[in-house]
Design a protein that fits this description.
mainly beta; Jelly Rolls; 2 domains; nine-stranded antiparallel beta sheet; six-stranded antiparallel beta sheet
Amino acid sequence: MSIIKLNPAFKDYLWGGTKLKENFGKKTDLDIVAESWELSVHPDGPSTVASGEYEGKTLPEYLDIVGKGVLGTKGNAFENFPILIKFIDAKGSLSIQVHPDNEYALRVEHEYGKTEMWYIMDCEPGAFLYYGVNKAITKEEFKERIENNTLLDVLKAVPVHKGDVFFIPSGTIHAIGAGIQICEIQQNSNSTYRVYDFGRVGKDGKPRELHIQKAIDVSNLNPMESDFKPCGPTTIQGDAKVTMMATCHEFTTYVVDVDGQTTWNVDDESFGSVIVLDGSLTISANGQSVQLDKGQTAFIDANTGETTITGKAQYIYARV
């Protein structure tokens, strides 16, 4: 069973900035890095193996070579690889958007839907994002407000702080605001319905496509309550403070602050992934060691067993 370090795929969407290069060590010729797809088998941007026997292979190629057993029993219960993990740097606001659920996405887009969570890695003073509606509205009102540019009036604007956690079920209207950097753990899907784009144009000088009818079909138009904090308890695990952030059918995530050593049992149910937010650490198991610095990611095969993480760092641990 292996631990593999990954290199991301990069996206230069027009709202992106340079903080992933400046603060998280991302190396690319792109001037703007809006997103780095850290753990991805998606054809729109697979990550690649960074070192070792499989260096240069894409993550899908690695999985094809070693076999789907490394996903674990829960991982293999999905038709496709279940999750996608990104860093996002929003220099500008993202479009107001919504993601479909599995039933709608499979029927219309021929891929799974998209439930996701965000961990706020950093943000500028006064930064905020949109999370659902601030009052119940009808589909008719939703359509009318899109058409007359008053949609923002009925969206819930939420101030953000470093360390906040947002769980975003499919159907939730949302948008990351300007000046926010997040780590996003999501279903392995790229189905996004853009509702409102602040009048911006793309690289071709034309307004970006909107998907209004699809958004009307899938959006939850009732307010949702959240304190935007991790859902689970904080426990001490060796020399680490471990807090469960979110859990759903596709993923469970933890934010971990380690100063010394801690261990994870990477069992036969699921692979594990480590995404370093700050500091540096070493992952060791079965005589193999991989070092990760801030902004780097590793994939740990299911059934690797007791896996030791040593260092002074903050990281996210994700599994099915």
